[in-house]
Structures are given as structure tokens and as C-alpha cells.
Amino acid sequence: MIMTNGVGIDLDRFRIAGEDGGARLHDLRAIEGAAMFERFQTVYRMLVSAAAAAGVGLDAVDLRVVDVFASVSREVAVSLCVSAGAADRQVHHATEAVERLPQVARLLRDGVIGVAAFDAVILQVTGVEGPDLVAAIDATTAADLAEMGGVSRGDADQSARRAVAELDPDGLRAKREARGKGVTVSHEVDGSDVAISTSPEDAARIDTSLTAVAETACKHDPRGKAERRHDAAVALLTGGRFACACGRDDCPVTAPAEEIAAALAKIVVHVVADAATIAGDADKAGWMDGFGVIDPHHVREVAARGDAILRPLDIAGLADGAAQAGNPYRPTAACDTAVRAVHGVCSEPGCERPAWKSDLDHVVEFNHEDPAAGGATCPCNLNSKCRLHHLYKTFADGWIDDQIIDANGVIWSEVTTPTGYTVRSRARNMWLLPEVGSVPCRHGEPVAPGVVDDADQPSRSRSRTKAKHAYRMQIRSRRRYVTACEATARAADLDSAAPPPF
Ligand SMILES: [Zn+2]
Ligand SMILES: [Zn+2]
Ligand SMILES: [Zn+2]
Fold first, then answer.
1. Per-residue pLDDT of the chain (502 residues; tens, 9 = 90+)
2. Alpha-carbon distance 221 to 209, whole Å?
3. Per the database record, which ranges form the DUF222 domain (predicted)?
């Protein structure tokens, strides 16, 4: 067998300056995106010339077009050593990139989004018909992605979904309805699967219910979380009983049925939506915790459910007191809801843990001994962090996280890695509750952040934690100063074509 030589990729060709670390990884991802963009363009040009050679137009309803696609796909498969199915997907993505999503594809070329993010956009736009509609979704999504800072696959997925939900709500509803409902059981050689096709809200309730029931077992239960969730599902679906399996005489779970009933009674799926949309006077997308963007019809369907409880969110009232009287550490219910809704997911870039399954974190640490001196319990200083990233923030050395509200009231999360690379990302759901970024602060600048971030966290030596929080304060204020200087410099040079510094 004769193999062609490898290309002999020399990274110096890409002229990536600097040391190993976050900045270099970011640049490498940008190169991957640009290379994928070039691959799509190449595959598309191959299609165009194959069609010309066959004497057909690519948009023609002509059986020979199928041959053109098949021939180019086969060449892609052979050249890349991939299966026919994988090659078909490449050809499909190439036509999407050139014909339907040229503006989003340019962000791939320019390193603004990665390959996974682009794939997510293609998936959301699949099945949307009509050139004007697709062009509008392409333009809206590209404009949104270009302004959000660090773009994860989830960010791109939800941005495109919102564009589809608001520009083509009927199409999205038709897709939801076509999916249907049902339960399928499949038996494989090594086991069986049960799959329930249902609405996002019922899927979220099932998911949360299983975890809640699984957690009624005591800490000595020998089963892992996945196995307890499985046992809870089988018990609930077959009318059986889920019980702690520790086998100890002193197990504190004495009345499992009552504990399960109590756990199930507390299951809530949070949906944040605009009141005018619920009333049918507007068509704004909504947000379902654990699922993401939902179309305006879906918002109204959820609101009309017999078990739905509607609670108005008093954003104006937030300004008067973000913290609950008598407990300056705990935000009010309105503040808690507003912060979780505007972040939507854990604030760590790339993390998709839902906000209502995350902790609320004081970005600048709260000072329990002197609340006025520490980080405020205010939307400006609170964000959602999943337990893992909350733990990392509290105990990992060398990392800095910050939250900034810019002059337009846009909330940004910022994470700086130990190698000094900073990723700034816009709060996922600024579009849903833009007012949250403009809630006026009723507190001073923090001067002495607290040493205890969360009483439940495992603790290390107090002095060490205290030193770290003081160090982070210094770094945060230095970064904020640099950012302010950059903003001033930019404002003085409005015609500069240079991209913003984040
Ligand atoms: Zn037990
Ligand atoms: Zn997280
Ligand atoms: Zn504030």
C-alpha cells in the first residue's frame, strides 16, 4: 500500500507567540476553526465543480444532483479516512456553512467560535426552511455570538435556539409536536433500556425527582448516585418502595415513604418568562432551568398547566434591598431568582450545570464579621456556580474570578487561569432580564472580603484563606483598573478597527 506523506505540520507556521497556557490553547482552537472553515469551503467548491461537470445546478431537483453529492462525499470519505455517514455530514455542514449560515461560519474562520459551537448552531437551524428566515437567524445568531466574549458550545446552542424561537416560533412548535410522546423499551445483548419521550418540563421534573428520591437514602448507603437514581425510577414506576440499603440498625431513615413523599412535593421546574408573552401580547422566548430557551408558545403552554404557579418578579424592588432583613448574607427571593435567571447556568465558561441546581456565590467574598466591608449581597456581586466550580473557586490556588457590569448594564463573568489567560463571558441570559444589570447598588466598595465563603465547604487554615482572599481583591481591583483604562482608550479612538480587548 502506498501512503502519501503527512503534511509535517510545523506549529511555527502558525506563528503562535508566547508560552504554553490558556492563551496558546485559545489560539490553537482558533486555527482549528479557520482550518475547518477552509475545509467547508473546499468541499463546497468540489460540489460546485462536480455539478458543473455534470451539467446540473446544485439547487436543481434532478437525480444527477444526488450523484454529485454522492461522488463528492465519497472523495471526502476516502481523503479523510472516515465512514460514508461521517463524510455525508461533512458535505452537509459545508453546504450549511456556505449557503445557509455564512455569517456564523465567518466567526469560525475568525476564531470567535470553535468547531463544536458551529456544529451546535447547524443542529438548531436544521429543518428551518425559507431563505429569508434562515438569513435572519444567521444574522441574529452571528451578531449575538460576536458580542458575548468566550463562546462555549452551550452558548452557541442557546443563542441559535433563541433566534429560532423568536423568529420561527411556529416552526419550533411544529417540531416539538412532531416529536410525539411515548415510552420505548429495547432489549440488548447485555441489558435493556427504557426511554421516555416527553416534554422538556416533564423530563426536568423526572430528572429532579429521581435525584430527590435517591437522596433520601442515608450517607452509608453503599450504592452510587447513578444506581440509587435507577432504583428510585424502578420503584416509582412499578409501585415498589425505594429504601436506604445501608442495612444499619441506626439508619436515620425511619419512614422512607414519608420522606419520599416530602421530597417529591418539593420538586419545582423554574421557568422565567416575560409577562406580556404569557398574556399572549408578545412573543419573547423564555428560559426553562435545566433545558434552556423555550419558544413563546411553549412559555404559554407551561403557564397554562394546572400545576403551574406564576410569580411576578419584582426587579424594581430589588434596588431597595437585595439582602433579606436580618440576614445580609442571604439574598431575597427576588434577588435569588433574578441572579439565577440572568446567569442561567454555572458562571464558569463551558459549564452547563443549571442555575437552580447550582450555588449562589458571592464573587467578592462575603464578610460575616463585618458585612459592610466584604462582598455585597447584590446582583452585581452574585452569580451561580455549580458545586464543583464553587469548590474550585474557594480552594484552588492561582485562579481569579470576577464579575463586572459595564457601562451598558451588561453583566460579565471573568475567569483568569493560573497561566494568566482571562476569559470574559457575558451572563448567558442578559437578553431575558436586561434590567438586572442596571439595578442600582446600595453598598460601598468591598475593602475586606470575608474568609468564609460557604459554611458547608471543607475548611483549611483560616489565615491561608484570608491571605488568598486579600490577594484576589488586589488582583481584581488591578484588573478592573486595567479594563477601565482600556475602555477609556477605546472611547478616545472610536474609529479604531481593533477588536475589543475581550
Ligand atoms: Zn441508611
Ligand atoms: Zn460549573
Ligand atoms: Zn451592587
1. 444 445 555 556 566 777 889 988 998 899 999 999 999 999 999 999 999 998 888 877 677 778 899 999 999 999 999 999 999 999 999 999 999 999 999 999 999 999 999 999 999 999 999 999 999 999 999 999 999 999 999 999 999 999 999 999 999 999 999 988 999 999 999 999 999 999 999 999 999 999 999 999 999 999 999 999 999 999 999 999 999 999 999 999 888 889 999 999 889 999 999 999 999 999 999 999 999 999 999 999 999 999 999 999 988 788 776 677 778 899 999 999 999 999 999 999 999 999 999 999 999 999 888 888 889 999 999 999 998 999 888 888 889 999 999 999 999 999 999 999 999 999 999 999 999 999 888 888 888 887 654 444 444 444 566 666 766 776 676 666 556 555 554 544 433 334 333 2
2. 18
3. 37-311
The phi-psi region of residue 300 (left if phi > 0; otherwise alpha if psi is between -120 and 50; otherwise beta) is alpha
User: Which cell is 89 given?
Assistant: 455530514
Backbone angles phi, psi at 360, to 5 degrees: -95, 125
Cα maximum dimension of the chain: 82
Q: Which three cell numbers stand for residue 197?
A: 419521550
Tell me how far the alpha carbon of residue 145 lies from the centroid of ligand 2, in angstroms.
Answer: 21
Measured in angstroms, how far is the CA atom of residue 359 from the centroid of ligand 3?
A: 18
Strand partners, 193: 186
Distance 250 CA to ligand 1 centre (A): 8
Distance 331 CA to ligand 3 centre (A): 12
Does residue 327 sit in helix, strand or coil? Answer: strand
Q: Tell me the three-class secondary structure of 462-481, residue by residue.
A: HHHHHHHHHHHHHHHHHHHH
